[in-house]
Write a structure and sequence with these properties.
The complex is a heterodimer of chains A (391) and B (310). Chain A has 391 residues and is mainly alpha-helical. In chain A, strands 1-2 form a two-stranded antiparallel ribbon. Chain A has 14 helices and 2 strands. Chain A is elongated and about 105 Å long. The longest helix of chain A is centred in the first third of the chain and has 35 residues. With 310 residues, chain B is of the alpha/beta class. Chain B has 2 domains: 215 residues, P-loop containing nucleotide triphosphate hydrolases (Rossmann fold); 80 residues, 2-Layer Sandwich (Alpha-Beta Plaits), CATH 3.30.70. Chain B has a 6-stranded mixed sheet with strand order 5-6-7-3-8-9, with helices on both faces. Classes of the chains: A mainly alpha (391), B alpha/beta (310). At the A-B interface, helix 1, helix 2 and helix 7 of A face helix 2, helix 3, helix 4 and helix 6 of B.
Chain lengths: 391, 310
């Protein structure tokens, strides 16, 4: 042996002191995250992926904006007529811009949730299959550091996608008049939802032996959150129905046989009690809350009250309608219906925000998946997952 | 530097109904190279996974560098270098990055790690390939990188699982030098293999396992007194056969061997007996060209032990 090996011991105090499964250190996270990014981002041509992502998003944003403007221009000519003023034009443009912004935001959310798990959904079982996971597990890195480090790396890639989407989000936003709070909220919610999606992928990749299976399970889970929950809500709709005694009020002539114009034909309000199905959506609306679409819609600040709503506003209002439950004004046809609508809208707008709870539920779910991954990364192990090798 | 090395007592590990390790006892003291020998599927790799703190044994006691891999895994890991049998590499990383990542993962200070990585690359002759991605490496080069990786945190205990597989002859000889050097520095080295020749000149002791049990422990320094087969070749095979017959020594021609080209095999009780026979033959005028053990010490020990088992 010719080479003189230097004394370069690892930190034995560190090892002998309280390292345990859940220990998280900055150096550990950095080591895993840097390794993950070097290993995976370098191997797949992520710049090509990012380019394709931007091309797709750019094309779809352009289409969305074109479509929205086309539909607003047709409204313009039929409703407003030929004598439109500059001010009306500007308002139409602003509404079209808002709508386009909402469409782009929803698109980034949908496509982002599709692309984001690409890295994390194969990270643990991919390493296991390549025989490199065990060489990390036999170091001083803790299971928590391996799991969270991989999650952070996947999130960085997801955030790169978000940055790639930024020009198009800005494009749509500027058309509707730059609204900074809106932008920040949408970006913040998107970033956190992508984090949750990455965590779901990580969890499944630690559970399933085969990368294909974990990728499919991740997509199923993410789709369930986004679209499955609203479907569950719809399916639960009949279950929220009660048959209740309802007082229906409606107008009838005082004398049904009276000639029109005679005093007997004057309308009076009649109320009668009837047994009727009532949908108590206020009991099941919370099923909708964790859906990322609902979170995004609820978190996005509303436009000015006199402006038409955009798709995000529509989602937000639909969820709030569900929260309010049955509208008893519909049984009263004697009253001023527009006043009842106004009252309903005031009630709706008075409802507190739901997105922090929805987002918290999502983050909790993500944390659960990370905890699952940590549990599956613990060594030494007693049981081996079916079909997995240790090394 | 005197460390406790490896102590294994009655270790058992099953996977479902498959008994991978039934009952293995093993000592790998510091400053020595211990060979773990056994046929395929005899539980060598499973035992090494237990020692590397990846598997919990079902029963038995294990101590690595003085710590219990189950209850004190981080203490064990800080002191243990493990070279797995199937060394996967992070394909897109360069050799230098693989070692740097490993050093980081063991929390070796960067400034120390930098020079150590250069030394290790030099040691395993990968200096030229240091900045090439590991996917361009050959199998043997990957093995050498795996060895460097296992040494990056200067461990007290080394677990090498089939380290020589895929190595060219020169690399094998160098591996032997590296391993002997590590033992000379006081490290406990446990080398598993089923290729006996590669362990022959490397190991001080051999632990033979079969069907998950320790079959025998052989001190290889004691082989001078071991009964084994010698191969004798002479210019005149007939004269050699007559000479052996005159001394009542049964001889055979090994399977597939040619008596004129390869010589005759004869079983002798010790090295002293072999020396005496050679002197006798030469004195009797038999034109002996060569006389040497028919197989490696380890191979003979192993074959003898396997026979005992039957």
């Amino acid at each position: 042996m010719t080479t003189d090996l230097l004394e370069s011991r690892p930190d034995r105090d560190l090892a002998d002191g309280g390292r345990h499964t859940w220990s998280l250190s900055l150096w550990g996270l950095r080591t895993v995250a840097v390794l993950e990014l070097r290993q995976r981002v370098r191997s797949s041509r992520w710049f090509l992926v990012l380019g394709a992502w931007m091309l797709l998003l750019g094309g779809m944003t352009w289409l969305a904006i074109k479509a929205v403007y086309a539909s607003y221009v047709s409204i313009d000519s039929t409703v407003a007529g030929a004598g439109t003023t500059e001010a009306v034009n500007q308002q139409l443009s602003s509404q079209a811009g808002r709508t386009a912004f909402a469409v782009v935001a929803l698109m980034v959310l949908s496509l982002g949730a599709l692309v984001a798990p690409a890295l994390s959904a194969t990270s643990v079982n991919g390493d296991r299959n390549a025989g490199v996971l065990a060489t990390l597990q036999t170091t001083l890195l803790t299971p928590a550091e391996i799991a969270v480090g991989k999650l952070l790396a996947a999130w960085v890639v997801a955030l790169a996608l978000l940055v790639g989407a930024l020009p198009f989000i800005l494009w749509a936003l500027i058309l509707g008049g730059l609204d900074l709070p809106r932008l920040l909220v949408v970006l913040g919610v998107l970033a956190l939802v992508l984090l949750v999606v990455c965590a779901i992928g990580l969890g499944w990749s630690a559970v399933a032996a085969k990368p294909v299976i974990s990728a499919v399970l991740t997509y199923l889970t993410v789709t369930f959150l986004g679209l499955g929950l609203p479907l569950v809500f719809v399916a639960m709709y009949p279950l929220s129905t009660n048959t209740e005694e309802v007082v229906n009020s409606y107008m009838v002539p005082i004398d049904p046989n009276a000639e029109p114009g005679t005093p007997g034909a004057t309308m009076k309000c009649v109320s009668e009690s009837q047994s009727q199905s009532v949908f108590h959506t206020e009991r099941i609306w919370w099923i909708l809350a964790p859906s990322p679409y609902v979170v995004l819609a609820d978190a996005t600040p509303l436009g000015k009250p006199n402006e038409a709503t955009d798709p995000l506003g529509d989602i937000r209002n639909a969820v709030r309608e569900a929260r309010l439950g049955p509208d008893h004004a519909i049984y009263n046809q004697c009253g001023d219906s527009s006043a009842a609508d106004r009252a309903r809208q005031i009630n709706r707008d008075a409802l507190g925000i739901t997105w922090p709870f929805g987002l918290a539920a999502d983050l909790l779910l993500g944390a659960g998946f990370v905890a699952l991954a940590v549990q599956r990364l613990r060594t030494p192990t007693r049981t081996l997952p079916r079909g997995t090798r240790v090394a | 530097m005197n460390t406790p090395g490896i102590v294994v007592r009655g270790v058992r590990r099953t996977f479902g109904t498959v008994v991978a390790v039934d009952s293995i006892d093993l000592d790998a003291p510091a400053g020595q190279v211990t060979a773990l020998i056994g046929p395929n599927g005899s539980g060598k790799t499973t035992l090494l996974l237990v020692l590397a703190s990846l598997l919990v044994p079902d029963a038995g006691e294990v101590s690595v560098a003085g710590f219990d891999p189950v209850s004190q895994p981080y203490q064990v890991r800080a002191r243990t270098g493990w070279m797995p049998d199937t060394f996967g590499t992070f394909d897109t990383l360069t050799c230098r990055e693989v070692l740097a990542t490993s050093a980081d993962a063991y929390h070796v200070p960067r400034i120390v790690a930098a020079s150590r990585i250069e030394d290790l690359l030099e040691l395993v002759h990968l200096g030229d390939l240091a900045d090439r991605p590991t996917q361009v490496l050959s199998r043997g080069q990957k093995q050498r990188l795996g060895l460097a990786r296992a040494l990056v945190h200067d461990p007290d205990v080394l677990l090498l699982d089939e380290p020589a597989s895929g190595l060219d002859p020169r690399s094998r000889i160098e591996l032997r030098g590296i391993v002997r050097g590590l033992a000379a520095k006081g490290k406990a080295v446990l080398v598993s293999s089923h290729v006996l020749a590669e362990l022959d000149e490397m190991a001080d002791r051999a632990v033979v396992v079969a069907r998950g049990r320790t079959v025998a422990v052989q001190d290889l320094v004691e082989t001078v007194t071991m009964r084994r087969t010698w191969r004798v070749r002479a210019l005149d095979t007939a004269a050699l056969a007559a000479g052996l017959a005159a001394r009542a020594l049964p001889f055979v021609v090994a399977d597939g061997a040619n008596a004129d080209r390869d010589g005759l095999d004869v079983e002798l009780g010790s090295d002293a007996e072999a020396a005496a026979l050679l002197a006798d033959l030469v004195r009797a005028g038999v034109p002996v060209v060569a006389m040497h053990p028919a197989a490696g010490v380890l191979e003979q020990a192993y074959l003898a032990l396997s026979e005992d088992r039957r």
